[in-house]
Amino acid sequence: MTYKANYGEVPQGDIRSLNIDDIPNHDVLCAGFPCQPFSLAGVSKKNALGRATGFDDLTQGTLFFEIRKILQAKRPAAFFLENVKNLMSHDHGHTFEVISGVLQQELGYVIKAEVVDGKAWVPQHRERIFIVGFDPLQIDITAEEINIPHAPLPREHFRRRRLADVILKDVEGYTLGPGTWASLEKHKAHHEKAGNGFGYGIIRWPIGADEVTRTISARYYKDGAEILVEQPGKRPRRLTVQEAMQLQGYDPRHFVFPVTDSQAYKQIGNSVVWPAIHSSALEIARVLRERRRHG
User: Which domains does the chain carry?
Assistant: First the structure.
């Protein structure tokens, strides 16, 4: 519903049910995928890495396996993959070793992977791994020459919004209920006693010029624990959908969430800092224009 409302298209559906032959040829594949299902249990990493059958065993049953199949069948000139920062360390680094092995050794792409913090574009601390790859048979580039921006590009003339520009002073209808607030305070006290931190983040007035929020997640609708807003004399409140979407770079004047608040929070928390993706997309497009092999 959200995609159709903003782009006029309805996504095809479950990637696992797609017939690859129905996917049109394309220059760039963009994807995100969960890493939790990866496991090296019962498979010898030493014997598997570098062999197609081994990679099949290691990625079967994960959505990365579907990405791999599309890359293999369609051979786009470039791809952009996004994931949580912990992909690098998941399963003691074995997961990323498998992924990079598939992309480089099996499929033959030239890749670069870096952790990018979205706070350079929006007032939210959000670290994500960006993986950019190019087919060396189509694009003349080395891994060292791939540029993954860590801030807006000069040619974008991008104006970063401050947190004080996003958070509204007086909002009705988003105050935490007494039970939820009591539970969060109890949780905070437990963590304070253990020396682990506070358990929730709260925006207090006045908001500092360079202040950023914690990372918003898909579970935000449950208790708002990641990001709460101080309300003097009252319990704190959750972000509004309009405030939350701006932490990901969406402009409420041009983008809509035609769903319930709970669904909107889930979609926003699962989304990306799109201006950061946009900067990388511009660099990928530049490489496709300037480095394409001919003949």
Answer: 2-157+273-290 (3.40.50.150), 163-270 (3.90.120.10)
